[in-house]
Write a structure and sequence with these properties.
Layout (H helix, E strand, L loop, with lengths): L5 E2 L19 E7 L6 H7 L8 E8 L3 H10 L5 E4 H9 L4 E10 L6 E5 L14 E4 L5 H12 L8 E4 L5 H6 L5 E4 L4 H9 L3 E6 L1 H4 L2 E9 H6 L1 H20 L1 H14 L24 H12 L10 H4 L9
Parallel strand pairs: 2-3, 7-8, 7-9
Antiparallel strand pairs: 1-3, 4-11, 5-11, 6-9, 6-10
Helix pairs in contact: 1-9, 9-10
């Protein structure tokens, strides 16, 4: 894995004042960015929420998807991972002692994953996706499991569709060129989805809220040994990131400007920031047990977990996580 190190400066231009919570030590948190988006902890840094806390965050490259981010976290190449809840749980089942720190995104009427076809496609509803090719950003993560749940809800085998891995910036292109039947734009890819929709000629079949309801889409993840070694830093990191989620909901236009600036600095297209619809997370920026328990129940149904083997409280961060 090749990393291109780039320190994310804590911009005073957007600061709303000091965070008011100081950790007892200086802690640098490395992470992998996602193309076309900005995590809440990146937004918190831009807003100056970590100033005076001893916490800095460092972008050390891009993740191809959530599972790649978790691999980097498990290997110690980064201190922060970010992935769909299903991918986080699969990683924990595989033996990684991870803590779901805060919801990276939520799924609701405004922010959701949307499955698009060309306007003249014969695909009209979920049952029609069987046997069709669907572009997703990665396997084993949110879109993968949403497709499986959608097929299950229609009484079809969960592997009835053919998933093809396509990077987010190419989702529109592969659909328009006929290389796939369907392109799935994840809830974290509203910038790419908005641009594709504006260009016309596409039709939405369904969104993941039709299958999952309102739920957290994924989590920013810490290693439990990190939380135990740095309990105050972990607590401050979660609190200030959740604070940034609230800021984005309350100040959408200002957040789009910050996103555009960050994309420009990363050499990405800043124009897509206008399509950012928010993080879709509840007020307060914290999860509820259903956000995790829903997927635990799915994994039990699929035979990957035994009934009662794992509970949401075992996964979700709490200030007591350092002693668990």
């Amino acid at each position: 894995m090749t990393f291109h190190s780039k320190k994310l400066l804590l911009s005073a231009a957007f600061a709303l004042g000091l965070a008011g919570t100081a950790s007892a030590e200086d802690v640098n948190l490395r992470y992998l960015a996602s193309q076309g988006g900005l995590t809440a902890h990146e937004l918190a840094a831009e807003l100056g929420y970590f100033e005076g806390t001893g916490i800095t965050i460092e972008n050390v490259g891009y993740a191809a998807g959530g599972p790649a981010s978790l691999i980097a976290l498990a290997s110690g190449d980064v201190e922060l991972g970010s992935a769909a809840t299903s991918a986080v749980l699969n990683s924990i089942i595989s033996g990684n002692d991870f803590v779901a720190a805060y919801p990276s995104n939520g799924i609701n009427a405004e922010v959701q994953s949307i499955f698009y076809v060309l306007e003249d496609s014969p695909i009209r509803e979920i049952k029609d996706i069987a046997g069709k090719s669907i572009a997703v950003n990665t396997l084993g993560a949110h879109l993968d499991y949403t497709i499986r749940e959608a097929l299950h809800s229609a009484g079809l085998p969960t592997d009835a569709a053919n998933q093809v891995v396509v990077p987010g910036p190419q989702l529109e292109q592969v659909l328009r060129s006929g290389q796939v039947d369907i392109s799935a734009f994840g809830y974290w890819q509203t910038t790419f989805e908005g641009a594709a929709s504006k260009n016309g000629g596409l039709r939405a079949i369904f969104g993941d809220t039709d299958v999952l309801g309102e739920i957290a889409g994924g989590f920013v993840v810490l290693r439990r040994d990190f939380v135990k070694a740095h309990p105050e830093a972990a607590k401050t990191f979660v609190e200030q990131s959740a604070r940034a989620l609230d800021y984005a909901r309350e100040h959408p236009e200002e957040t789009r400007k910050i996103l555009a600036k960050a994309l420009q600095e990363r050499g990405e297209n800043p124009d897509i920031a206008q399509y950012f619809r928010g993080y879709g997370v509840r007020a307060g920026g914290l999860p509820v047990e259903r956000d995790v328990q829903f997927w635990i129940d799915v994994l039990v149904r699929e035979g990957k977990l035994k009934e009662g083997q794992l509970a949401a409280k075992d996964v979700l961060y709490s200030p007591d996580a350092a002693t668990n």
